[in-house]
Specification:
The radius of gyration is 24 Å and the shape is globular. It has a six-stranded mixed sheet with strand order 6-7-8-3-9-10, sandwiched between helices. A six-stranded antiparallel sheet has the order 13-12-11-14-20-21. The chain has a five-stranded antiparallel sheet with strand order 15-19-16-17-18, with no helix packed on it. Helices cover about 20% and strands about 35% of the residues. By secondary structure, the protein is α+β, with helices and mostly antiparallel strands. Helix 3 crosses helix 4. It binds adenosine-5'-diphosphate (ADP) and magnesium ion.
Length: about 350
Amino acid sequence: MPALLCQNLTKSFANQPVVRGVSFTVQPGDILALLGPSGCGKTTTLRLIAGFEQADSGLIEIDGDVVADGRTHIPPEKRRAGIVFQDYAIFPHLSVADNVGFGLPRRERPSRVAEMLEFVGLAGMEERMPHELSGGQQQRVALARALAPDPAVLLLDEPFSNLDAALRLEMRQEVRHLLKASHTTAVFVTHDQEEALFMGDQVAVMNDGRIEQLGTPEATFHRPRTRFVADFLGNTDFVPGTVTADGIETPLGLLPQHPNLPPGTAVTIASRPDDVILTPDEKGNGRIVSRRFIGIAFISGVALADGTIVHSWQSHMTNLAQGTAVHVRFGDEHDLVVFVGDTAVNV
Ligand code: ADP
Ligand code: MG
């Protein structure tokens, strides 16, 4: 039995559909990362699960109990869903211990608070006030508070977006570790692809109120089924091509792939910076038009004769100046994803 089931959820605001037929399940102890651009309906989906919004239609079950369907709307406090928001959501006027113990039965409170603070690494900070804590510590208090009542599912809405970049990386690892150590079932909302790929056992990519793809991080990244998903995950360029008897003719030369399509079919190839190989060549088919240094590598933008731009990783030891003429080709490590229109044909 899944710990969380959402089936065909819909929600409109003022006749504007915001969530349009969202379905997924989360197995006990799994983390589902819900990934999508700002405004695509992620927070609304979480609020439907939490019970802060009432769905127009669809079914929600938590731990096998129907909490929402056409007739039922169980109030938030009876849903056994814990919530961690972006803006900490801890009470500024309560101590750490009172924040974590808030809402717990009085009898259990001291031992459960101590246990939770130990768990998130804040033992000894019981009497501190929120303003005496760092951003990361405040978020740990919020996590301890959400986990203290032993929720059946934990909902996290962009919980690290107010933290600086270094701390965000650290919290990512720590929170994933804590969720796994406590076998917590969670839905983790983010607009950051790297965060989703790191945090999720499954990743659901959401676009305009719909889930376009749901799968493991690896499958979603390597086998995007729509252009939107390919575009959203991983610096993808789209290269035009034409199917021929010998392979796919592209501005980077012939790609030896044979999608099951008639010769002459126009396709688009998803190309990522690690798929494109450059060698300096005076008579080459491309020219470097941009360079971005990302520490471990350069990402070079290369213009091809027909105006197509592709990007390519270079080792940080390789110094190809802007304007350098290069030979550009696809690597042959793996098949590239091929699209007809918006839909992948070979994944
Ligand atoms: P996300 O979390 O993915 O950024 P949201 O779920 O917050 O997206 O919002 C999706 C859309 O729904 C947005 O266009 C937003 O303006 C709209 N929306 C969200 N909540 C309300 C509301 N209470 N009333 C009207 N429109 C809303
Ligand atoms: Mg949101």
